[in-house]
Amino acid sequence: MVTVVTHPLVQHKLSVMRDVHTGVKEFRELASEVSLLLAYEAMRDLEVTQEEVTTPITTAEFPMLSGKKLALVAILRAGLIMTDSIVQLVPAAKVGHIGLYRDPETLGPVAYYNKLPTDIAERRVFLTDPMLATGGSASAAIASLKAAGATSIKLMCILAAPEGVAVIERDHPDVEIVVAALDSHLNDHGYIVPGLGDAGDRIYGTK
Ligand SMILES: O=P(O)(O)OC[C@H]1O[C@H](OP(=O)(O)OP(=O)(O)O)[C@H](O)[C@@H]1O
Ligand SMILES: O=c1cc[nH]c(=O)[nH]1
Ligand SMILES: [Mg+2]
Q1: Beta strands 2-4 and 70-76: pairing type?
Q2: How much is the pLDDT for 40?
Q3: Is residue 19 part of a domain?
Q4: Does the CB atom of residue 70 touch ligand 1 within 6 A?
Q5: Would residue 106 show up in a list of annotated catalytic residues for this protein?
Q6: Which residue among the candidates 6, 106, 118, 206 is catalytic per the annotation?
Q7: Does residue 55 form part of some domain?
Q8: DSSP string, 51-86
Q9: What is the pLDDT of residues 115-160, one digit of tens each?
Q10: Domain that residue 34 falls in
């Protein structure tokens, strides 16, 4: 299942991110803001229970977060900006990191780091990566989350290509995807069209 967050604030910020003239500082700020807005949508179904709260006026029952604890997991490098931002909303969440880069020749993911919360099996996992292109990186990351015992996983991306969505639906039909936009296609180098370029390079200024 794919949810596209069509809110005008998200769409406006994403359009500015796409602009080749947007510099590193503004790109980073926008990526953080879009991540918060995506999290608002992705976490819409978090469980709440009614708990007693004493206000200055009276005591009554109000909703409080309950249910499974959360884990935010970033696919390095680019996913880091998303977890860094979203953890502000859910400060009790644990944060994991999966290091993957895409081989420029084969476009396949190459793993170089994996550090996950030891109790990931008991947590609801929100996996972050701004870009879902061929889907190879996200699919491999989800496989390693499942190998570690995770059973509840949502994938949060800023941009996705239909090719990447199809790969996740094929490999991991149980994983919901939340994106700010679903673009047209991939070019011959595996870049999303129209896209926003290389997310990692634009966040970290490495090009
Ligand atoms: O869906 P895919 O075809 O696998 O492509 C998407 C991946 O490519 C980018 O990472 P990159 O390899 O550039 O690494 P970086 O974040 O370290 O720059 C992006 O952040 C995703 O992880
Ligand atoms: O368009 C793309 C595809 C993969 N990775 C990116 O950063 N951008
Ligand atoms: Mg990159």
Answers
A1: unpaired
A2: 98
A3: yes
A4: no
A5: yes
A6: 106
A7: no
A8: EEEE-SS-EEEEEEE-SS-EEEEEEETTTHHHHHHH
A9: 999 999 999 999 999 999 999 999 999 999 999 999 999 999 999 9
A10: 2-46+70-204
Q: Please check whether residue 64 lies inside any domain of the structure.
A: no
Q: How far is CA 34 from CA 45, 85, 128, 165, in A?
A: 19, 9, 12, 20
Cα 115 to Cα 98: distance, rounded to the nearest angstrom: 6
Q: Can you tell me the distance from the alpha carbon of 114 to that of 74, in angstroms, rounded to the nearest whole number?
A: 10
Whether residue 63 lies inside any domain: the answer is no
CATH number at 94 reads 3.40.50.2020
Rounded to whole angstroms, the Cα distance separating 146 from 168 reads: 14
Q: What is the pLDDT of residues 51-87, one digit of tens each?
A: 999 999 999 999 999 989 999 999 999 999 999 999 9
| 0.95 surpassed by complex ipTM | yes
Put simply, whether the predicted model's pTM sits higher than 0.90 gets the answer yes
**Considering the chain, what percentage of its residues have pLDDT values greater than 90?**
98
| Residue among 103, 131, 207 whose CB has most ligand 2 atoms within 8 A, to mutate | 131
Q: State the closest ligand 1 atom to the C-alpha of 136, by its place in the atom list counted from 1.
A: 4
**What is the total count of domains within the chain?**
1
Instruction: State the pLDDT at residue 163.
Output: 98
Q: What pLDDT is attached to residue 171?
A: 98
124 in active site? no
